[in-house]
């Protein structure tokens, strides 16, 4: 199953705000589809499976993952010791493209992925062009020493609309460089979802 490339506003009407998917907002308030108005009028609720599915879809669309990629992260989170839901979020937040998005180098996750694949980002002074690259504690993430790379990121930083950079990242804006100081806490993740329902969704696989 490949990444979604269809209408983004339709997705946020169904799932709510997804910071990594798009900065745009829909003027329509009903869920997409012919039953959107009907469900709102009748108060029809999703089934338990439907609720779990939507929470899973939030993760998938926000981080720009395929179904198989997300399932691999869930399996890895289960394998590690600790709270599985939090570990899943930490794995996703430590992806190189996610960190670039969190730092404000890009406006969306798709743009962050593009920054990485086009060779604009370095980790520990070496160019890394794999968006899913799993960063580690004390890794230094910076911009390639190239005017075009720096200009691109600086322009995005000026347009940054999200909240302050979380405490687990130490960012030097003059150097356009960040150090990964720690793993994220649950409160650091700006996406609104119940990650436990995602784990439950995959519990039978």
Helix-and-strand structural type: alpha+beta
- What's the total count of β strands? 5
Order of helices and strands: HHHHHHHEEEHEEH
- Sheet with the most strands: spatial strand order: 2-1-3-5-4
The backbone outline, from C-alpha atoms, is globular
Largest sheet: 5 strands, antiparallel
What portion of the residues fall into strands of 2 or more residues? Answer: 5-15%
Rounded average pLDDT:
87
Q: Which parts are unreliable, with pLDDT below 50 for 5 consecutive residues or more?
A: 38-42
Quaternary structure of the protein: single chain
Brief write-up:
Residues 94-158 form the RNA-binding S4 domain. The protein is of the alpha+beta class and 205 residues long.
Overview of this structure, please?
The protein has 9 helices and 5 strands, in the order H-H-H-H-H-H-H-E-E-E-H-E-E-H. By secondary structure, the chain is an alpha+beta fold. The chain has a 5-stranded antiparallel β-sheet with strand order 2-1-3-5-4. Strand 1 and strand 2 form a beta hairpin. It is globular and about 55 Å long. About 2% of the residues have low confidence. InterPro entries: Ribosomal_uS4, Ribosomal_uS4_bac-type, Ribosomal_uS4_CS, Ribosomal_uS4_N, S4_RNA-bd, S4_RNA-bd_sf. It is found in: Plastid, Chloroplast. This is Small ribosomal subunit protein uS4c. It holds the Pfam family Ribosomal_S4.
